[in-house]
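Quick start: read one record
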Amino acid sequence: MNAVENLMVNHKSVRKFKNQPVSDALLERMIRCAQHAATSEFIQAYTIIKVTDQKTKETLYNEVTSQKPILNAPVFLVFCADVSRLLRASEMNQREAPEAYMEYTETFLMASVDTAIAAQNAVLAAESEGLGCTYIGGIRNNLPKVMELLAIPQGVYPLFGMVLGYPEEQTDEAAKPRLPLDVIFKEEKYHIDGEEEQIRAYDEVIRQYYIDRTGGKRDETWSMQMSDFVEKPQRPFLKDVLEKQGFKLK
């Protein structure tokens, strides 16, 4: 593997950071790398908001998502799907975008995909500079509060946050093993031939990973985790929030 590939396959979530600021120059380079990710139809439909104000971070922690990395990370970024800029671009050209534009499901999907691809570019750039990151999907627990704190207008939807900083400690801990390649990579057509056997074998790999990482305190498999996960309601209130932001998902 080359250096870039090694960086990718050794990605680990980092949740504890040194009390060391991230320079503006480094952060700007990271965001520029995010900007050069692929974008659907050149829409570049995202806005990234840097949050360093401690009071704002404390409110996010107390009222939105009780994830401590938000409090101790030097930088907290909020990645937003943003189509409002496209409407303003139309106005700049004395044109009025159809009211239905924001209501299409495709509009929301394009902006969401653009945002996610840009964010992963940012992660790769950050990790190449020795920084560590973790995505924070928990901001979707209370989006009205997030939008109030960050003055989010219509046509914009916070998708996830990202904590960023220098890792408190370097570790030789192995990256968490992923599903077998044959489970997620298919030739010509979708199929599930041999999937159960491969996942059962993978379950034992994950079980051993957790046992090794926790000194035997955690004994769990991937399929056990997913069984628990799919039984939980997945933020059923989000559709209402999206509609209030103008995304009708037609």
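The first helix runs from residue 3 to 9.
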